[in-house]
User: Fold this.
Amino acid sequence: MTDAATLPAGRARPVPGSAGALPARAVSWLRRRLFASWRDGLLSLGVIAVLGAIAWAIVPWALFDATWHGASRADCTGSGACWAFVSAKASQFVYGFYPPAERWRPDIAFALLVAGLVWLMVPRIPAKAYAGFFMMIVLPVATFLLLHGGFAGLTVVPSDQWGGLLLTLILAVSGITFSLPFGVLFALGRRSRMPLVRWFCIGFIEFCRGVPFLTVLFMAIVMLPFFLPSGTKPDPLALAVVGIIFYEAAYMAEVVRGGLQALPKGQYEAAMAIGFGYWRTMLHIILPQAVRKVVPGVVNTTISLLKNTTLVMVVGLFDLLNIVSAGVSDPLWAGSQAEGYFIVGLVFWLMSFGLSCYSRAIEARFARAERT
Amino acid sequence: MLGYLRNPWTLAAGCLLLAATAASAESGATQKAIAARGALNCGVSSGVQTGMSTLDSNAKWSGFEVDFCRAVAAAVLGDAEKIKYVPLEIKTAFATLQSGGIDVLARTATHTFIRDIELNVEWPGVYLYDSQGFLAKKSLGVKSAKELEGASICVSAGSNYELNLADFFRKNNMKFTPVAANTRDQNEKNLASGRCDVYANVLSALAGAVSKLGNPDDWVVLPELISMEPIGPVVRKDDARFRDIVAWTLNALIAAEELGITQANVDQMKASSTSPEVQRLLGATGDFGTKLGIDNAWALNAIKAVGNYGEMFERNLGEKSPIKLQRGLNNLWNNKGLMSAPLLR
Assistant:
């Protein structure tokens, strides 16, 4: 029993012969982990009561009393959730205003994204360098061409018709993919010996960290048109994508800088001693070690980036949250806030939790690599 | 409609706008740009105001504001579908209008002095006379706003309504506790969960709230109305011709109701009506459209697209909608309301 090793001293009571029947093992597990003392027992019961109360409130609402089919809110007569609302609006939540006849194009883009993620994340699939190339170059270009169209007989679908989960993923994936490389560059720039580069990077990072993202977007959409020739309107999606990438890059830069500073000076000196130049030192010696140290910080920033994507309403874009907000105001479905926001919460939680799981898997892999 | 006047961002933007938009003022330029583009850029609210502008299940826009966009597009381009809707929060709405991002703002924007004079925009008319009132649970037993001494009141943070509310209570020597929230959604939830006794907003918003809060019979709008909010479409000040087009599109819809022209009978009225006003409005005689620089069938097209003013109101906000807002002041002048159009001669 390895469990004993993780218990506090004095609490370990390995049951002799615990390899016995399953019920006996379960009882012993309960006794050791949940009810080892009266204080543990009280705490466990308290937690169980709270969880039970939450489940008691949510499960009947979400499942047993729910209405699954219907054409309007009036069909939802039960006391539970009105999932008919979500199924009626599902395609709108996923694709936004994208024309129904052309929705196979976002479908292909989703498939490409999933393929890229699987390639990148499953350790057994080889050629990770190509996966990086795929995610950073092939995927964005292919997605843009596919969604925008205008060649080979594909009709043009302007970016103001992209919306919903599609838009959230476009913003999040492009933000996550490009903010880390730019962040690394800014972090290196901030520690550069060239004063102009250093000052520029410090100025940029401190500006971004000092200003709320909403303000950056607001200024971009309100002020930018006055500096452009009259009548030209900047593309809101391009503004949002560029804004998210550089804004989050500033945060990434600070996370990466933490990793750079945590490395002992000997690493730099050793690299110099064997005749490495600046870029070779950074690429082969310093960055691989620094980035390993800051995986939790990078994922933290990534998750906050994911949630920042909901602020794009200010430039008139309908990401998942905003299209659901609009959906619950539909007079036909008035009163469906709980269902709408429940789904949004669930989708964002799944994405964020997925990122955390991936981050923990990477950390575990690095830890194993260091032990061997 | 919200309290953007006290928002330093909008004020700063407004001041800059004033400096930046001195150029490019030419009467008729907006209409030429719309014709060249083949679409009207119409600013609406961001899909969260029930009855005003919302998305239906096919991601199509509908609502009162949207219908006004359609009327203008039909008048200018002859096609109510040639519109690009630009959903805007009130924070960015006026700046987007000024910078040319939209041609007309058909949002729930109240006409105020500061907006009119300092933001360099103009209200060509009023399409909704809204008033601020109070919504309470019937079970609370309150019959009048004068009985609200010590009540907690839900209100939009930083809005005109907050100021109106404070004025009303000061005038009546009463105290209240504001429960401020940013969005209508939050206010409605606070009211439903009992965080406040009463919700203060304009009648159209209160009616929308009732339609979302379940049984309408549980709620009552108190008789006191504490402010008048004239709400209308907004255009840039520098293009008088386009201002006229928007103003007369609205006038045409109101006149149509008075003259008995509806979406259903508009063609027949044009063919057979002997009323000179109907004939002039629908382009059977005269050249009203040509004088505006648009097709002579402008009013015909607009009415065909959205019906007359009364039909537009009832479909989106009134008895034919889930909101069931009383027409009240938005009735025609000859029916105890304030709606009237200048003479068609």
Remarks:
- The domain at 130-228 of chain B is CATH 3.40.190.10 (D-Maltodextrin-Binding Protein; domain 2).
- Chain B has 14 helices and 13 strands.
- Chain B touches chain A through 42 residues (CB under 8 Å).
